[in-house]
Design brief:
This protein is an all-alpha fold and 136 residues long. The chain has 6 helices and no strands.
């Protein structure tokens, strides 16, 4: 602490470098996916956790944005598979309300699986292009 103060007081001493720009703790889920899944907050949270896993993973030769796209694709495929399982279970149960909910969920999950619906999100892409600063 004393050395820092002396360094600032000495002539010709350069000011300390600005700290790296802080990013939000969790990566953003693409806006279009967030809006399509607004009735399914647990799915948004699962996407967020998958993206967080990509953001904290050791660096690889693959760009992080590419890994993030793969993580989203994988998670969305799981959502669709789960929705189809629920639809099958609803059909077997014979409950009309459960069947209607399952059909609606399956339709939403099928729609979000289309990559062109969310690939143009620049905030999402920019977040993964910036390398995180050193952590303490």
């Amino acid at each position: 602490m004393v050395i820092k103060r002396l360094g600032r007081a000495l002539p010709g001493c350069h000011p300390p470098a600005a700290p790296p720009q802080k990013r939000s703790v969790l990566p953003p889920v693409p806006r279009s996916l967030r809006s399509q899944l607004k009735q399914y907050p647990e799915h948004i949270e699962r996407l967020q956790l998958a993206l967080h896993g990509v953001s904290v993973a050791r660096t690889t030769r693959r760009p992080r944005v590419e890994m993030a796209v793969w993580a989203i694709d994988d998670r969305l495929s799981r959502f669709l598979a789960e929705a189809r399982q629920e639809l099958d279970a609803a059909v077997c149960s014979g409950d009309p309300e459960r069947l209607a909910r399952a059909k609606e969920t399956e339709a939403v999950m099928a729609a979000v699986c289309r990559k062109n619906a969310w690939m143009g999100d620049e905030v999402f892409a920019a977040w993964f292009r910036v390398e995180p600063g050193p952590t303490r």
